Amino acid sequence: MELYNNNDFKFTLIKNMGNLTEKLMEELNCETVFTIPVFGGIGVAESVVVTWIIMAVMVIAAIILTRNLRVDHISRRQAVAETIVTKLNGMVESMIGPEGKRYVPYLATVLVYIGIANIIGLFGFKSPTKDLNVTAALAIMSIVLIEGAGIYQHGVKKWLHKFTEPIAIVTPINILEVFTRPLSLCMRLFGNVLGSYVIMELLKIIVPVVVPAVFCLYFDIFDGLLQAYVFVFLTSLYIKEAVE
Amino acid sequence: MGTLIAIGAGIAVLGGLGAGIGIGIATGKASEAVARQPEAEGKISKTLILGCALAEATAIYGFVIALMIIIMLK
Prior knowledge:
Oligomer: heterodimer
Strand content of chain A: under 5%
Strand content of chain B: under 5%
CATH class of chain B: Mainly Alpha
Largest sheet of chain A: 2 strands, antiparallel
Order of helices and strands of chain B: HHH
Number of helices of chain B: 3
Distance between the termini of chain A: 71 Å
Structural class of chain B: mainly alpha
Number of strands of chain A: 2
Radius of gyration of chain B: 17 Å
Number of domains of chain B: 1
Largest interface: A-B, 16 and 11 residues
Low-confidence stretches of chain A: none
Distance between the termini of chain B: 9 Å
Low-confidence stretches of chain B: none
CATH architecture of chain B: Up-down Bundle
Number of domains of chain A: 1
Largest sheet of chain B: none
Number of strands of chain B: 0
Structural class of chain A: mainly alpha
Order of helices and strands of chain A: HEEHHHHHH
CATH superfamily of chain B: F1F0 ATP synthase subunit C
Mean pLDDT of chain B: 87
CATH topology of chain B: F1FO ATP Synthase
Helix content of chain B: over 70%
Radius of gyration of chain A: 22 Å
């Protein structure tokens, strides 16, 4: 017995694909939620609003966890806070080395932010890292920090001299690297988040039950956290290289 | 025109081939290394993740460019 007509099935599939293209386009251009009426109107995109939500969550969590800190007889809440901070600091510090200790708080914050941003899609929000502008901003912040760390550590003269190392002929490549590094950081994060989203949507059309849940574990949770780790890992690697 | 765009996007995604081979070789070598020196597992897996992320980037670029071809030329 045939449960459904084959042609019917094909038709639904094609119709869903059409919906997917529309949905994809909708996901790609980030619409403006509201406009601030100063200087001729500043548009506030959806990713900014979701970022505010993430910021609020992070700030509230930080406030709740760090209330009534004590040296002895610590509460359970303080133990949790201490574990989180120690683990994060240890993780970032093992990547960046002892010389880059000053940059650990920033990198840990970026790690937490991208981690939350990548999995916030599970809670029905549009994840901000799916917007190219957000990842571009993060990448630009990273490259400014990298070059700034180099200047701070060595001074302008030595920093400029570093471009000609190891031999003078590689100078153009070294200068090019200043632009390709943020580009690759930005595109990697954006492409990964968008790619896993597209694959999940395709999967949901073909097999609507059970299977997407399994893949969701990999694509939405594991891959999202891994990409946050990779972003911070690469940034700290570049900083380590710059301050050496 | 639509067919050409589809073919172009398909060719762009071929970049994933290199990433697949690269990550495969890296993972194979990493498991060899762990078998030889199980105590160095932490360091090896960290290096592996970094290598995979860098190799994966080519596939991601292919995907982004395919998407751009579809969206820009439509």
